[in-house]
Description:
Blueprint: H1 5-12, E1 24-28, E2 31-34, E3 39-42, H2 45-48, H3 57-67, H4 80-92, E4 96-101, H5 104-122, E5 127-130, H6 139-144, H7 148-151, E6 161-164, H8 169-179, E7 183-186, H9 200-213, E8 216-220, E9 244-247, E10 258-263, H10 283-321, E11 326-332, E12 335-340, H11 344-353, E13 356-357, E14 359-361, E15 365-368, H12 376-392
Amino acid sequence: MKKDWITLDQKYVLPTYGRMSIVVKKGEGMYITDEEDHTYLDLFSGLAVNVLGHCHPLLLEELKNQSNQFGHISNFFYNKPAIELAEKLVEATFPGKIYFANSGAESTEAAIKYIHKYGQENNRQGIVVFKNSFHGRTLGALKLTRMEKVQQDFPTPGFPVHEFEKEDLQQLEEVFKKHQPAALLFEPVFGSGGLQVISVEFIEGARALCDQYNVLLCMDEIQTGMGRTGELFAYQYSNVTPDVLLFAKGVGGGLPLGGILVAEKLAHYFKEGDHGTTFAPSPIASALGKKTMEILQEGILAQSKEVGNYLKTELERLKDQYPEIIGEIRGKGLMLGAVILKNHEILKGKFIEKNILVNMTNVNILRLLPSLIIEKQHVDTFIESFEEIIKEW
């Protein structure tokens, strides 16, 4: 007798997610297959986690190799795969030291504690964020998230949070002068907040203000990192080096892993016992993360940037053809969004009918987060289907 997985989920799992009516049986490359043997082109890759697609053969091999050695050992022992991943991340970014966590929200929580330590020693307090920003759902991260529908009426920690309009350097300086915060934290490309790209001019101006007012510049690259925007991390499009870099999602090769990278000159603020976790860094996730970085640096990163440019060009073409349906095209690399002006509430379902999986965020923004192994033929399939949907309206 075939199991009704959807009914069982509704019976045994708390309903905190609005799921599609798809029960996944298998994933391979750019595709997933459901229990009914329907195959779908996957264009949000586990919300930007599966940067090399599903079941990449080299990751499966690495998974087997590390699993045959050891899985979990705790932080009372030196963890060779984690040390190797930390070295690779630092060498690809800037000199510093890493604290590993299990997720994006945990990375944000670690950053909050680090910022607090910095603030205590430098007579500063609080964190500055963009209006309408998203930084996670655990209580500390939730206080930094400036979305009422996410914040609701959950209790909040007592540290001060100050918000300002993105790209407004004058307003940012006023906040620095008035409140003397310890840190500025933002995503270089909004994720859940709407896919807007923060300009290089703002990032470089913010760096200068942080230096002037002794404020930490913290970049939340949980979603933008691991090649999502065409560079390994989005801050690398600028001449700026952050003080604290938050990462997660794709860094574990499909398994839970995150963390913060703190610049070398600031690495003394965390001491033994200041923070910790049972599971991170998982030796298996660390080994997969190291292998993922190697594959990205061997050519996938460059290919993904090219395909991302092609996808954005094709979206712009559709926007010009159907201005009453498609508004602004946003994003960078393979982190792209299209503002949908009509019928946005049914668009995801229409794509499912075409055997394509997409994500909607911020009510009416079509968000595309495909695996970085995507090819132009996959883009063509998506664009052709999108145009067919528009013509059917």
